[in-house]
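User: I'm preparing a small set of examples for a lab meeting where we compare how different chains pack in three dimensions. I only have the primary sequence for this one, and I'd like the structure in token form so I can line it up with the others. Please keep the answer compact; I'll paste it straight into my notes.
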Amino acid sequence: MPISYTIPTSLFRMSISSTIPPYVVLHKKRGETPLETLEAWKSQHSALAGIPTSYAGRLDPMAEGKLLVLLGDECKKQDQYTKLDKEYEIEVLLDMKTDTGDVLGIGEYGGKVTFPDRAALRPVLSHELGPRSHRYPIFSSKTVNGKPLFLYALEGTLSEITIPEHIETIYRIIHENSYRLSTIELKKRLDELLAHIPRSDEPSKILGADFRQDAVRARWNEIFKTLPNRQFEILKLRVICASGSYMRTLAERIGTSLGTTGLALSINRTKIGKFTSLGPVNFWSKQYTA
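Assistant: Understood. Below is the structure token output for the 290-residue chain.
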């Protein structure tokens, strides 16, 4: 007769905890929140359902790419991960702007036509290198008096507070190439990007007004109804930076330095780790991969 027995729960937990990695690197899709990315991963790893998790750096809704998630006891070391360097591939759309710095914002067209060559770009990109003090984006989760900045922005009460500043450090900006889109092509691209943002009536999304989706789409449609048939310049850049650098505001500053406006058409985080400089030599001494 076969002998039946039960494995004590404590031993099962010990077995699980001894095999879990200290972290995982997930790919956050455009339109997802970091929490949605993590929940999708957890749904495929039910044995780890009760394991503590924490982010080591978030990503905006319109951004995609590598998301570092700490697991189990490694969550206690979160402070050791929050200062990691990042690499991004971004596209900067010139002659357009929004109040968020990316396409998920209320748009505005100023009528300028800008086609910078590499010679014009070089000093603009160089100007961004090194540590610089910048204001936090108004559509960010940075809190002032216990309330996130984006709520002040949605309420129209930003004038009642002082927007705090922080240091952003950019190590390198490489201009990979540039390309152009016609008005019709740009409208199609924007529609495709915004289609990635899911609608939600969950109570947790009320705080952010579900990204003002209807107002954002309505404004873009209004702009394109009267927009002339022209070409728009898109800069493809690779940016290596310290933690806490916002690609949305970098895109805005690049546009301003070129005498126009700019926004981040796309943002893709491609590397997380430690970027090291030894004299003229720069290299990634540590990278976190899946």
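A couple of notes for your slides: The longest helix spans residues 213-226. The two ends are 46 Å apart (CA to CA).

User: Perfect, thanks.
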